Amino acid sequence: MENNSFKNALLDPRIFSVTWELVPGRGAKETAQENVLASARHAADGEKVHALSLTDNPGGTPAMSADFIGCEILKLGIEPLVHFSCKDKNRSSIESQLYALDRAGVRNLLVMTGDYPVSGYMGRPSPVFDLDPTHVLQLISEMNKSLEYQGPKGISRLKPSDFFAGAVVSPFKATEAEQMAQYYKLKKKIDAGAQFIVTQLGYDARKIHEAFLFLKQSGFSVPIVGNIYILPYGAAKMMNNNELPGSVVTDKLLAEIDQERNNPDKGVNARILRAARMYAIMKGIGFNGVHIGGHNIKYEQVEEIIRQGEALAPQWTELIKYFDYPMENGFYYFERDPKTGLNKETQINRQFAKSSAKVEISYSISRFFHMLMFEPGKKLYGVMKTISRKIAGSIMENIFHKLEHLTKVVIFDCKDCGDCALIDIAYLCPMSQCPKNQRNGPCGGSYQGWCEVYPFKKQCIYVRAYARLKKHGQEAQLEKNIIPPCDWDLHQTSSWLNFYLEKDHTANKQKTASSKK
To answer: Does the pLDDT value for residue 509 go beyond 70?
Structure first.
């Protein structure tokens, strides 16, 4: 291979980058770990793969640390791409982990929310989700520039790191609200410093093309990598049943894969060909690379996908017909191009589309009181600010806090974090109503508008927020301003006092609004 650096390959328009996903598995000295290292040796010798992508506790179950095995793989002469999830660590632990990776020379990170914890020693673990991917990307960006922090003798600066950090987006969402919220969060991720984007898994050519077009129309120049999975029937059935949240296999595709099992080779060649066709289409569309995954895949199969994919690439437009797997009544961001089977560069008119969620009367009431009390410049805003100054530190503060909290528990299921994000998310609380506490947009696991953790029981709060805001033509509010993580110094204190006294995350917005007057 002329250059086996993942970053250089992905940023070089002459090179079509290839990463191969490996799963370390549970344990320290088990067969799974030995298989990963054996695969890494083959990939290093074969020189067709630019990086080995390593999963971080996939499916929410414990596994060998992607960080540690990534260090072992680096010594074999090939770069790891470590999946860096937010589910199991608080911000201090995340920072420590980044220092260790930087010192070890592990530079490539794929930052993601992570699967909700499912099982562990003596039962289900406690999820953390202290930071979301946009926060981690911000931290990495600051580390790359020389992170500043308050030391005992004033501001100190660390030596700069050299991370190449990317993020994930799913174009494979069925509803308008889910899809738009994904794209709004993608913009935040790029603003936070994402240096490349990897798509979630799906087999609809229009949706694959849509992700590429969205980045192009948004003016982003970050590389985009397409996700390819060598799909056997077992995995396809799990994805079809939404047992691997975020991955989409339609009934039509599942039926075809079921038929392929009757082939003499039990469908192996059909799976390889499908992956090679995806490779060719993604390269033809203009993707910068592909991310190849699959259970118990051999390096020779990865090489075969690359070989067939390169051979098919010149006639990639003829392959689009093999990926006509739309979701039932699925939403598309762009109009369909009947000539190519992909998309035109014209966005659909979303103005009159049917709402994905019911907008409750409580939202109208919340908006009314917000405009009355929480908008700088309004009469009650000044009154409340004056009252807050007088109450703060007095015997009345505790009484005020308890009355506020009781009200918000009844209306918003408040968790008393003290750094309230209700204003930012259409009066839906991410700390109590989102199991992953996402303050800047949805995770990738929602299904048909339902929450990944509570499918068919609870709608994703961002689906509800989108419907609420769209009713007033304000849905784009979800892409504005990265909402900081909770400041836990404010935990179990009055969020109203913190708001009016400019202690919470809205302080900078209030100061900006005041400066414009």
So the answer is: no
